[in-house]
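Everyone, carefully examine this protein record:
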Amino acid sequence: MRNSPSSSARLINFLGSMNLAISLLVVVAIASIIGTVLQQNQPYTSYQLKFGPFWFDLFKSLELYDVYSALWFLAILAFLVVSIATCVGRNTPGIIRELRHFRENVQEKSLRAMKHQIAINSVQDAAATQALTTRILHAQGFKMRQKVAEDHTVVAGMKGGANHWGYWLTHIGMIVIFLGGLMDSRLPLMIAEWQGNLKPETRNIPASEVPAISQLPDTSFSYRGSVDIPEGSRANIIFQPVRDGYLVQHLPFEVEVKEFRVEHYSTGQPKSFESDLVIYDKTLDAPLETTISVNHPLIHNGVAIYQANFGDGGSELKLRLHSLSNRYASQDVDGKVFRDYTLTSTDQQYKLELNDFRLFNINDMEDGAGNIEKENVGPSVTFKLRDATGQALEYQNYMNPLSIKGQNYYISGVRTTPNEPFRYLHIPVDPKGSMERFMRFLSNIQNTELVKQSALQTTRNSMQKTTVADPTVEAQIVESMQRLTEQFVTKGSDGIMAEIEAKFPQDKQESAAEAFMKVLNAALREVYKETLKQEGVTTEPSDTDWLFFDDSLLAIDKLSAYGSPWFIHMTNFKQIEASGLQITRSPGKDVVYLGSLMLTIGVFLLFYVAHRRIWVWIKPLDNNQAEIIMAGSSNRNQPEFERYFQQLQDLFQQVMKQEVKHVDPPTNH
C-alpha cells in the first residue's frame, strides 16, 4: 500500500500547481484593469461626488482607490511569487534531467511504436551508415550521443533545449517584475503607518505647518508625488497622496521654475507647454539649467522630473464688487488667487476665497442664427463667498461680456456643491458696454422714496383717464406698488406667487397673479424711465431700451437665489502661471525592465523554439548493408514537426541509397 503524501508535500503541490498560479494571475489582471479604469489616488471628495455615498463606501472598503497598495493586492502578489518560485523549484530538477539525458538507451520496440518513425535499408554498411547519420544530424544542428552495442548502434540527437530556458525566463521574469514593483510600492509607508511612525495629513494647510509625523526625509528609497511651482519660485518638496490625505516628501535638491511657456490653438485649447528649470543640488558644482516638456523629462541622480500639467500660480486680480443691495456698499479688492479676504458690511461679514483664474475658457456658444459653436470667451475667476456661519457658495464669473443670441450679458455662475452644475445669472450690458445702467436701475427700485414717487405718478396718470378720484384708493394702489416692488427685489416672482397662493383661493390665483404683475410692471417701468432720465435720456425709451428693461427684470428675478450681496467683476489681472511637476524616484523601474526583457525572451523561446529529439537505430545486415529505424518527437507544434520529419526522412532515404560526400540539410519551417 502506497504511503499518503506528507503535509509539506501537499503544500508544495498546492503552491506549485498551475491552477493556483492561473487563478492568482486572473485576480491580479482584474485588479490591474480596475486600477487602470478607475483613476487612482484622487482626493476622496472627487470619488464621493462621482459615485455617491453608497458606492463610495463600498469601493473604499475594497481599497479600490489605491489598488496597487491595497493589502489584499500585495498579499496576492506575494502569494503569486511564492507559487511561481515553488513551481520553478519543483520542476527545475526534471528539466535539467531532460536536458542532460539523450535517452540513448531507447528500445527498438519503443521506436517502432512512435507516431513519427520510419524503417530504411541502407546500401552502406553499419559503420558508414553511422557516419552518414552523424553528418546529417550535425548539419541539422542536433547535439548527439551514441550507444554502440553488439547487434546495433543508437544515435540519439536533441536540439531546441532553449525551449526549457524559456520556461525559466518566463517564470523568473515574472518574479523579477513583481519584486521590482514591490521596490517601488508603498509597503514601507504602510508598515510605518502600522507602527504609528507615520500619519497622513488631511488638513489643507501650508507645507511649513505639516507636522513631522506626516513628513518623509529626502533619503526615502522611492517616492512619487507632484507639486505646483509658480514662475520665479522654487520648492524642495512634493506631495504624495495617501487615501484621503497626503504626505510631504522632501527632495535632495531644490527645483526652480524659471519660466513657464504654453502655446494655444486658435480655439484657446493648450497645444504644448514646457518649463525652464534650475536644479540646485549640493552635489553639483553649479546649478543645472534645463528645459522639460511633456514626454521629455529630466533625470537627475535617479530622480525623474516630468512636466505633468499647469495651473494658476497666484495671479494678481483687480475686482470690483458691485452692490446688489442698498444695505451693502460697493468696493474694490486687489487680490491674489489662493488667498482669502474678509469683506465687511453694515450687518454681516463675508469671506472671499479666490480659488482659480483661467485665461481661456472654451464654451459652446449660440449665435443669433441658433448655431452652436465653440468659442473662447476669455478670462474668468472662480471663487467662494462664505458667510459668518461658514456656509459657502461657489461662483464662476467671466471678465468680458458674452454674446447670447445677439444680446450681450455679463455672466456669473453659482452652485452650492461641486457636484451640481452652475446656475447662471445674466446681467444685460448697456449701450456703454458696462453694467452701470443695470446697477443704477437695481438701486433705484430699492429706493423707497423713488419707488413711491414713481408709483404715485403712475397711479395719478391712470386715474386721470377714469372718473375715479379717491385719495384712499390712490394711497392703496401706491402702497400695493411699493410692496410688490419690494417683494420682487427680495424674493422674486416666486415670492409673489407664494403670497398669492396663501391669500387667494385656487380658482382666483391666476387672475390675481395677472393683476399683480400688471401693477408691478407699471411701477417698474416708471422707475426704469427715471433711471434713463438720470443717464440724460430725455426722449421716449426705444425698443432697445425696453429690451434691456425685460432682460433686467429676468436678472433681478434671479437675485433672490444668487446668494451674494455683490456682483464681483474682474476688471484687470496679471497672470502668474504655475508649472505642475510630477517627481518620482523609482529604483525598481530598471528591475521591472529586466524582468520584462526576461519575460519577453522567455515567451519567444516557449512559442518559437521547439525541443526536438531524433533517434536513429542502426542494425547491421548479413549482406554488408544496414537497416535503420529513425524516430522523432517534439514537445510543441506537432503539424510543423510532422512536415520537418518528412523532409528529414526524405533526406535519409536519399543518402542511404548511395554514397555521398556532402549532405545538404532540409529547409526548416
About this structure: The longest helix spans residues 471-503. The mean pLDDT is 86. The chain has 15 helices and 26 strands.
